Amino acid sequence: MRRALSLIALLTCAVAPAMAQVADLRSKTEFRVCADPAAVPMSSRDETGFENRIARLFGEKLGLPVVYTWFPQGPGFIRKTLRAGICDVVIGYAQGDELVQNTNHYYTSAYGIVTRKDSPLAPVDMLEDPALKDHPIGVVAGTPPATNLARAGLAKDMRGWDLFVDRRVEDPVGDMLAQVKSGELAAAVIWGPLAGPLVKQDPDLQFTPLLKETTGPRMFYRITMGVRPGEDVWKRQLNSLIRRHQDEIDAILRDAGVPLLDDYGKALRE
């Protein structure tokens, strides 16, 4: 028993400095944000995205200046920013990803269908709707709706865009919306926080969230903030800010045009 306790003590001593080193990476003088410089409408170098506005809110509440590390989202984003210790939080990150430690979620949203308001496909609210057959449909390859479209027998109708691109030089969502508007695409299936704010600015387009899917990957996701594993104090501080300022966060998201769902992805929040 004594030997076991000694071993535990040794292990604890070995782990404690490592955990302290993780915690020490966080800046106490700046609110350091890891962000994509061209992920419009979420984040942008000119700081007009809705994630930039949330970062500004948190910086004000913490009494710290907001400082960005800009890097295109895609392979290596977390490793070269958050994990490298040069920034301390990713404002928008899907719940459950093992690359980061998630805070509590601060909103839930879903993929949806973008069509012209005057399109015969405007009433469609499920990917299994037979009305979609034989119509060109835009989708980002490798995303959950691409799987559901294929399962619905619409593989031949899909027009794919790459998932990981440098959005400083490529604009998959903008391209899809432009082609829906022109009629080159009959519809596009896009992540709500990307499509919603852009569709809000275009009187010819509409966004319909996918709330009725019964098969395949789920279409809704809870969005958190991401911090480094082991930074539990920092995570709790951010959770407290989310809880105390949820109404202000919601106001930013609604003003931007982000479709907000209940926690179970079943209905839009009023």
Structure in words:
It is a single chain. With 270 residues, the protein is of the alpha/beta class. It folds into 2 domains: 24-106 and 221-256, Periplasmic binding protein-like II (D-Maltodextrin-Binding Protein, domain 2); 108-209, Periplasmic binding protein-like II (D-Maltodextrin-Binding Protein, domain 2). The protein is 34% helix and 21% strand. It contains 8 helices and 12 strands. Strands 1, 4, 5, 6, 7, 8, 9, 10, 11 and 12 form a 10-stranded mixed sheet that branches. Helix 4 links the parallel strand 8 and strand 9 (158-161). The N and C termini lie far apart (59 Å). Residues 1-21 have low confidence and may be disordered. Residues 1-20 form the signal peptide. Residues 30-256 form the Solute-binding protein family 3/N-terminal domain. Keywords: Signal.
- Rounded to the nearest angstrom, the distance between the terminal CA atoms is 59 Å
Sheet having the most strands: 10 strands, mixed
CATH superfamily of the largest domain: Periplasmic binding protein-like II
Structure classification: alpha/beta
Number of strands: 12
Average pLDDT level: 90
User: Which ranges are low-confidence, i.e. pLDDT below 50, for 5 or more consecutive residues?
Assistant: 1-21
Tell the overall outline.
Answer: elongated
CATH topology of the largest domain: D-Maltodextrin-Binding Protein, domain 2
Helix coverage percent of residues? 25-40%
Number of helices: 8
Q: What portion of residues belong to β-strands?
A: 15-25%
CATH architecture of the largest domain: 3-Layer(aba) Sandwich
Which CATH C-level class of the largest domain is it? Alpha Beta
Rg from alpha-carbon coordinates: 21 Å
How many domains, in number, for the residues? 2
**Could you give the order of the helices and strands?**
HEEEHEHEEEEHEHEHEEHH
